[in-house]
Design goal:
449 residues; alpha/beta; six-stranded parallel beta sheet; 10 strands; 12% strand; elongated
Length: 449
C-alpha cells in the first residue's frame, strides 16, 4: 500500500484557480476508482480555499500513473488543460502525506491558523468517500488518525481555545467596518444552506443578531431555517430583504452569481451602507460590487490578511503533536506492510513443511519415529523463520521494506498482498495455521490501526 496526495491550496495557488479545479470534485474519486487505473482508493477534500486528492495505490512504481490519472480526471471535470492542472498541484508521498493532512485537520495550514471548521470538513470528506465506496482501508486509517490528531491539538494547545474560524474573522471585520457595532440591530441575509452557512448562523446568534434571513438557489432555505432558525426567502422576496439588509453573507458557491448591477438596483432606495461578506470559493457576488457607493466587500483574501498571528509557543506545541502523529502513522503503515510480507513467507514455508510431513506420514504412519521427524522439522522451520522475521523489522525501521518484499518475490516467487496483512500469498495453497511451526514470540500477526 502506498499513499499519495495532490495538493492545491491558497498558499500556492490563487483562489480562482482552486475554484476552477474544484469543479466536479465530488465525482473525481468515483471516476478514479472505477476507471481501473493504478488508483485503488480515493478521498477528496474540497473546501473554500483548497482542493486535495488523496489516493492509495499498490506500490511506489504506480505513483506516477496514479498522479496522471488524477490530473486527467480533474482536467475532464473542470475543463482545464492537463498541463495547467498538473502545474497547479503539489504532490506528497511517504510521510509527507500524513504530515500535511494532519496539519490541515488541526488548522495549521488554514487562512485562519487554528480554525476548527476544517476538522469537520476532513471528517465529512471521509464519510462521503465511504458512502460512495472509494475509501480504501489505508485512506480510512489516514483520515481517522487526522481527526484524532486534530482533537489532540484542540485539547492540548491554546489553538483550540481561541475559537477562531474564517467566519468569525469575517464577522469581526464586518464589525470594524460598521457604523453601529451592535449586531442585535442589524438585518442580515445569508446565502446558502451548507456547513459555512450553519456556522455563520450560529456565530450571528452568539453576537445577538435576531433579524436573519436565508436564501438558497436550490430551494433549501425553508428546511434550513426550520432547523437553524432565521426566515426563509424566495426568489420573489429576496430583493426586498437585500434592500433593508445591513450585512449580506455569501456561503453558497452556487452557479448563479449576484451581479454588481443587481446589487446597485436593489440598493438604490436603501439609504444606508451595506457590507457584503463573500465566503464562497466561486464567489456568490461579482467582485465589482466593491465599486458601488456605500458597499464594502469582505472576501476570503480579506480574511486571510486580517487573521491574527498565533502565539509561537502554541504553534510549536501543535506542530510537534502533528509531526509525532505523522511519524507514528508512517511507522504503523510500514509495520502493517511488513506483517503482510512476514505472513506470506510463513504461509509459504508452512505449505512446504506440511507437504513434506505428509510424505513422512505416508511412509512411516503414526509411529514414534515419524513424530520425532515432525518435531525436528517444526523446530528447524521455527529457526529458519526467526532471522527473516527480525530482518523484516530492521529493514522496515530503515525504510527498506520494498527491498525485503522484492527479495521474497525474487527468491521464493511470493507475491505479497499489500492491502491486507491477513491475505494469503498468491500462488500458495491452503495455508496451515501459523502456530503449527511453533514460532512463539516471533509471530507477526496483522495489527489494527
Amino acid at each position: 500500500m502506498v499513499l499519495l496526495s495532490l495538493i492545491a491550496t491558497h498558499t500556492d495557488v490563487d483562489l480562482e484557480t482552486v475554484a476552477r479545479l474544484s469543479a466536479g470534485a465530488s465525482e473525481v474519486s468515483s471516476s478514479l476508482v472505477d476507471s481501473g487505473t493504478a488508483v485503488s482508493g480515493s478521498v477528496v477534500l474540497a473546501t473554500c480555499n483548497r482542493l486535495e486528492v488523496y489516493c492509495e495505490t499498490g506500490s511506489d512504481a504506480d505513483i506516477e500513473a496514479a498522479r496522471s490519472a488524477v490530473v486527467a480526471e480533474i482536467s475532464r471535470h473542470s475543463g482545464m488543460s492537463e498541463d495547467l492542472v498538473s502545474r497547479s498541484f503539489a504532490t506528497n508521498t511517504g510521510e509527507s502525506v500524513p504530515q500535511h493532512l494532519f496539519a490541515v485537520g488541526a488548522g495549521l495550514d488554514s487562512a485562519v491558523v487554528g480554525e476548527r471548521e476544517i476538522a469537520g470538513q476532513v471528517r465529512r470528506a471521509l464519510i462521503e468517500a465511504q458512502e460512495s465506496g472509494t475509501a480504501s482501508g489505508g485512506l480510512t486509517r489516514l483520515f481517522q488518525t487526522a481527526s484524532r490528531t486534530a482533537k489532540d491539538v484542540g485539547a492540548l494547545t491554546a489553538l483550540g481555545k481561541r475559537g477562531l474560524s474564517i467566519v468569525s474573522v469575517a464577522l469581526g471585520l464586518a464589525t470594524d467596518l460598521s457604523e453601529d457595532r451592535d449586531w442585535s440591530k442589524k438585518s442580515v441575509v445569508v446565502f446558502g444552506t451548507g456547513a459555512y452557512a450553519g456556522a455563520t448562523m450560529a456565530l450571528l446568534k452568539e453576537r445577538g443578531c435576531t433579524d436573519i434571513s436565508v436564501y438558497s438557489s436550490s430551494n433549501r432555505a425553508e428546511s434550513f431555517a426550520a432547523s437553524r432558525g432565521g426566515k426563509p426567502l424566495t426568489r420573489e422576496s429576496l430583493p426586498a430583504a437585500l434592500t433593508r439588509a445591513d450585512v449580506v453573507i455569501g456561503c453558497s458557491g452556487s452557479d448563479s452569481q449576484v451581479s454588481a448591477e443587481d446589487v446597485r438596483r436593489v440598493r438604490e432606495a436603501a439609504g444606508k451602507p451595506l457590507i457584503i461578506i463573500d465566503l464562497a470559493l466561486t464567489h456568490d457576488f461579482e467582485p465589482a460590487v466593491r465599486e458601488i457607493d456605500g458597499v464594502e466587500l469582505i472576501t476570503l483574501e480579506s480574511v486571510r490578511l486580517a487573521a491574527p498571528a498565533e502565539q509561537a509557543e502554541s504553534l510549536k506545541q501543535a506542530s510537534t503533536i502533528v509531526a509525532d502523529a505523522a511519524k507514528n502513522f508512517s511507522k504503523q503503515q510500514l509495520s502493517r506492510e511488513m506483517d503482510s510480507a512476514i505472513v506470506a513467507l510463513r504461509r509459504h514455508t508452512l505449505d512446504v513443511l506440511e507437504s513434506e510431513l505428509e510424505k513422512v506420514r505416508a511412509q512411516h504412519g503414526c509411529t514414534g519415529a515419524a513424530q520425532e521427524v515432525e518435531f525436528a522439522m517444526r523446530r528447524m522451520v521455527k529457526q529458519l523463520l526467526h532471522v527473516p522475521t527480525v530482518r523484516a523489522r530492521e529493514l522496515a525501521a530503515g525504510g527498506q521494506q520494498e527491498d525485503y518484499i522484492r527479495g521474497l518475490e525474487a527468491l521464493y516467487g511470493i507475491t505479497v498482498e499489500r492491502g491486507d496483512a491477513a491475505a494469503p500469498a498468491k500462488g500458495s495453497g491452503s495455508a496451515a495455521d501459523d502456530t503449527a511451526a511453533g514460532t512463539g514470540e516471533d509471530d507477526a500477526e496483522p495489527k489494527s490501526a
